[in-house]
Amino acid sequence: MRARARHHYSRGAAIVQAHHERFDGHGYPRALPAEKIPLGARIFAVAEAFGAMTSDLPYRQARSSQDRQTAAPVLR
Questions:
Q1: 25 Ramachandran zone, left/alpha/beta (phi>0; psi -120 to 50)
Q2: Which of 1, 24, 43, 58 makes a 20 to 30 Å CA pair with 52?
């Protein structure tokens, strides 16, 4: 694999790995402080949380449409 392709995949891997980090530094896997969390990981985390809140899951129903309408402008 060429070096450029490896670099591209390593950046993506860093985003996926860091999307469970928390701004207070108590996330995982590396307990990164807010300023060290990549922007892509922050976006990924918000999208994942929004998807979880607005989807029916085996253990609970999706949030109401009113909740979704309230959250949508915040995410724009």
A1: left
A2: 24
